[in-house]
Amino acid sequence: MKNKNNKALGPFFSLITDLPGGGKAFMGILLAVALYTVIGNTLIPESSFAHVPTYMVTLMGKYLCYALLALSVDLIWGYCGILSLGHGAFFSLGGYAMGMYLMRQIGDRGVYGNPELPDFMVFLNWQELPWYWSGFDNFFVAALMVMLVPGLLAFVFGWFAFRSRVTGVYFSIITQAMTYALLLAFFRNDMGFGGNNGLTDFKDLLGFDLRSDGMRLGLFVGSAVAVALGYLICAFITRSKFGRVLIAIRDAESRTRFTGYRVEFYKLSVFVISAVLAGIAGAFYVPQVGIINPSEFSPANSIEVVIWVAVGGRGTLWGAVLGAVLVNWGKSYFTGAFPEAWLYLLGGLFVCTTLFLPKGIVGTVPEWWAKIKLRLGRFKPDLIQTGKGDM
Amino acid sequence: MRFWNKSLLLAGLLLFGLSQLVAAETVMDLTKSLSVKSYSKKSVIIQKIAQTGDPQATVILQSLLDGSLFLTKDAGLPVLAAKLGKEYALSDPFTGVDLGQVRKRALKKIRINNKVRGILKASIARLNLSHPNPRHRIKAAKLLFKNLDKALLAPLQQLVEAENEGAVKEAFETTNAALILLHGDTIDARLKAVERLKAAGGPDVRALLSSMDRKLQAKASSDEQSEKLQLVVQSALKSVERQLENYGLIESLFQGISLSSVLLLAAIGLAITFGVMGVINMAHGEMVMIGAYTTYVIQEICRTSFPGFFDYSLILAIPMAFIVSGICGVIIERSVIRFLYGRPLETLLATWGISLLLQQLVRTIFGATNKEVGSPEWLSGAWEVTAGLSFTYNRIAIIFFALFVLAGLMLVLKKTLFGLQMRAVTQNRQMARSMGIKSARIDAMTFGLGSGVAGMAGVALSQVDNVSPNLGQAYIIDSFMVVVFGGVGNLWGTLVGASSLGIVNKFLEPYSGAVLAKIFVLVAIILFIQKRPRGLFALKGRSVEG
Q: Which one of B420, B452, B476 terminates a domain?
């Protein structure tokens, strides 16, 4: 597989050049979309139809965050067979960590003008900042927490769960219970995370105004880079030896264990990596939508993420990205145009995807294509390829 | 002789009429004099009215309390006035005769303040103490307990002695004891009163005793007698408090059992389908919701078409909900789930989609707002065990209903052919099929049964919760927890899971608040499942890994 010419370019570029065709195409499309958005927003005049308005930039930035979240779910579900119904919790925790930093950035510009305490704490008559808020005025501490908190939770949770071999639906159910418990916890005012209003009214990030066009474009580019890096990491993991073991665990867990692999270790590692990715997605999400509140923890959100992956195609990384963007685009469109119809569509999507598209769009469309080709040209059966195995 | 008899009778009648006349006149006069401005004078007049003991006094005082008693400005006559458009319709408070309509200008309202209102209530209660209906008398005695007046001491004493009805006498005695404790003059009588109060118990007695205790402590001059009284009061207070604490525990236990029964109803169908098919049915909550909406529809039909049948609509709703939800379950199984065998995670997703569809469907048909499902007459109210301890009838009914459903399911599982086949499929699907059991049919019927039971849970939930499209969502995670905790394939596991979850939840609530209690329970289960990944009552054997 490895291309000798690219070795000189260093390990990073070899990551890209080693990608299979589908992966390269995906990186190309991502780059093209990002470039076009930047150019369309800044260089093309507003009067032109090719202009990309700023709200569109933010919307696409949001989709990219969802795409990263979908990647993280696909990494564990598509490649290791772990169906987590609690990934919304890791996403939200990353979001809250970023939200806390943004809250501290408000300083004395809040409604109550208190330089130390966020508005909701003044409102609740708190005298000083709780200990777990300290350090969040530093961006690097916050960025570290964005990864550390979801990672740590995933580590503790996964360590308990995988060690005692909680698998299948049981694992799904307890991850759902986990995000539900967090939902209830974050609704409480005493937690010090703003109760059911959550964290909002953000002003700026790293000194730049969050509402300025430049900042929005910057966040979009940041999200695009995060998705690209996340994709590369996932692609690297899944194609490494480590990834092969994950796939073996997915397909025959007991057999893998009997072959001498420590299944718990593999599962735990990939679960933690996935949680960190989800946390990063949440951190990019919050400054773009301008709010984080406990409803992000709701179990329904986490299940929705799973359906993005299923629609796109589990076990194919760019399928997860495609599914996340498609479903969310549909959601934006239908909740605006036919709000009544959206839940029917979403429900139908769950049912139809599992029944008719078990491999998702990415897995099923080539199969159909192959069948059509078979009908068209019966004389060339040797060209038929089913399941290309693209990532 | 005969003449004398007649004349005596006549004289008696005359006397009676005269006394009535006199009484009416006094009440009338007193009512007229209510036109004074001073509230304290009004209070005195009100007490005088009450002392007449006239049945009409109750009417006057009650209407005064309601604010419907007015005096006409020209003659100063008391009238009852009800607003009728721009004018007021007048009637005579004594005879009820219609007196026509007047403008507001012609009337003068008798104003009262809170203090007067308190006195009014006590006076009415005092009048009610001699009401012919024993229930009213008990109520009056309890009301008086909160408004203990020295003036009542003597009359109540007489009433206690005259009373024959057991329960009424007891209530009178308790109130009387409270009066004696506060206003009695001999120490022996007061000590006895404390004993009597201690026996009665309840939150009112606690409040009285603790205020008495404070009063005694505040008193600087402590002679031997009051010291003794204080000791007795304190010990009685302690015993009443201990009793109330026990009641609190019993109440928590009851609440816990009540929550458990709701959880049991919601989870039991889930446990069956999970046990047999290894599938978590995410749309299970929606089956509960459909059951609740079936109840609503049946009740509405009864309300509009057969009003006399309304009280029994709930009983009719139970089999109907079972049938409607059961049919829904069979349709879901035949149309979606049977294509997903061996892929439990995909089934989970598909059923989640079905739950979204059903929720939205119900929202489209019935609207997103809560629907009101009424309680029949025989389920409203509460069973009052003693003072400070009562259980509502609808919760008691749900507990029994849950046990009834559990017993019914046990019977089906243990005593019928279908149950036998179901258990066989649960334990080893392949082997069961080899023995000629049509496992696909069993799956469909099991799913129908589980869904039908969920529908019956919906009937019960409609009595304690809001009927809305989100009803099922509120219970689904808790039901999962019950199943995961209790283990599958065994109804005892579900029973133990539901009752421990419900009771632990309710016992934690007073200490930590409802939300934290729930979080604790969730965390505890997440930890528990590490120890026993297959639940409390796990199936053992070959089928487990499958």
A: B476
